[in-house]
Amino acid sequence: MRAVLSGLWKGGAMASARVPLDVTLREATQRKLRRFSNLRGKPVAAGEFWDVVAITAADEKQELAYRQQLSKKLKRKELPLGVQYHVFVDPAGAKIGNGGSTLCALRCLEKLYGDKWNSFTILLIHSGGYSQRLPSASALGKIFTALPLGNPIYQMLELKLAMYIDFPPYMNPGILVTCADDIELYSIGEFEYIKFDKPGFTALAHPSSVKVGTTHGVFVLDPLNSLKHRDLEYRCCHRFLHKPSIEEMHQFNAVCRPGNFCQQEFARGDTAYLQLDSEYVYTDSVFYMDHKSAKKLLAFYEEIGTLNCEIDAYGDFLQALGPGATIEYTKNTSNVTKEESELVHMRQRIFHLLKGTSLNVVVLNNSKFYHIGTTEEYLFHFTSESSLKSELGFQSIAFSILPDIPECSCKASCIIQSILDLRCSVAPGSIVEYSRLGPDVFVGENCFISNSYIITKAVVPAYSFVCSLSLKVNGHLAYSTMAFGVQDNLKNNVKTLLDVKLLQFFGVSFLSCLDIWNLKITEELFSGNKTHLSLWTARIFPVCCSLSESVITSLKMLDAIKNNSPFSLNSYKLFSIEEMLAYKDVEDMIAYREQIFLEISINKKQSDLEIP
């Protein structure tokens, strides 16, 4: 999880009057969480909350999973009521990116509501894709990733709704666009509000180091009239740069240099502070478009019909905005994962469509932006004494039944909606979610266990990732458990079988692993595209009749690698992670989580009755 931290402005008497940055952020965040908690399961008044909350999905399988989870949440009264919740799926065919998903969502809104959505405030959350760097979210979606807080526990959806809870009352009809895997925290004055009331686009901006700017969008802002910086500033943007180089940021005057009157303090993640005289830039997070701009984009989408290339909502929409926007960026494909033939042409059409539209910027000088990226980063922020853990009030034990697990001074384990036997052991730095662990189970340090059932004696090696999926194969219920190292790169791919030796599994050459498992290197070993061979598409995970058998078998795979001892997989039907997702049984996975939820709820009620 990468963190971008805004500064604490220091200048003369201003510094002495300031409450420390982390304190104000924590207090502001906790206030939003309390306010959202009070709305859960209750009807909201007109104008108090979003009219529509829409989540995008990559395909029909994902759409079904999202709809089922939303339905469960509403039945359990975990979300505010009186709001229209929707899942909008991308059309089948070529990948269209989050920009294409935005256009598709606009069409869905038009079909559902006609002219009625002219007056709506809409939250659009992009949650398509299969989260290859955080595979625990692959089956049921990034927006439904569990968080260690709340009762019942929050998932990313609830956190999004909580962090944006102050926006709708001060927003003109339009759409706020965000992604499922980032968190924005901010603090402003007690009587200040963020307003989205200007025509065109409005984006939030966070002060960040120049290095961070190379992996984000960067705003080139018009000069500030005042000599004093405030927590909340409304600025005009001359142009927007998408993942620029440091040289480009300087070339286009995006870099700010603190003067004597205004010095800024940055944090790099949760560690060392940068020098007070550091250069900085303003980076992006979420953006809003008014209804007129949304209708313009919709008309464009209706005109082109089918989209056959990936469009980036940030890079391709925002770079066209502001008086300084130029068409040169449309030919820059260095940040594109797959360059389709019509990409440049489509970008140029979008540029001409949006050119002249204003880009307003809400500068939040006391803010943090977190991006949830990899399993390792997830482990760090949930189990270490990180700033995010403090600001959101993450718990080491969230809605679970388990023994007292001692915490060390720097790390703790994190248990989320799980049932652990009194005699099981979980080492510091590990996460267990939606799982049952029996009496003779030992989980090593820095592990991630998800959706699993381990009842027999087992040792989970340190730095293991273990996640089980329910499958429907030929009409029958089955189970498969993906197991590998938390540092393994599932996206890394090679083009030929000869290069498979370059892949790594749990720090060992994948070729050696196949030898240990008695598997031969053939094209049949991989699913999907035969020129993109990876751990994601490798058919190495056994399909079993029971959840517990599935977990134990996959753990034996890991144990064989750790001890360099043979464990033949020849007798098993094997799936790749790609195939596991294609055959996933969403209903059974949700039912398993529901069963754990009910058992914990009953246990907690009994415990409450026993307290005198």
From TrEMBL:
Annotated GO MF terms: fucose-1-phosphate guanylyltransferase activity; nucleotide binding
Gene3D superfamilies according to UniProt: Hexapeptide repeat proteins
One GO BP: L-fucose metabolic process
Keywords (A to Z) from UniProt: Nucleotide-binding, Transferase
Keyword Cell inner membrane carried by entry: no
Entries under SUPFAM superfamilies matching the protein: Trimeric LpxA-like enzymes
Native species: Urocitellus parryii (Arctic ground squirrel)
Source species, domain of life: Eukaryota
Protein name: Fucose-1-phosphate guanylyltransferase
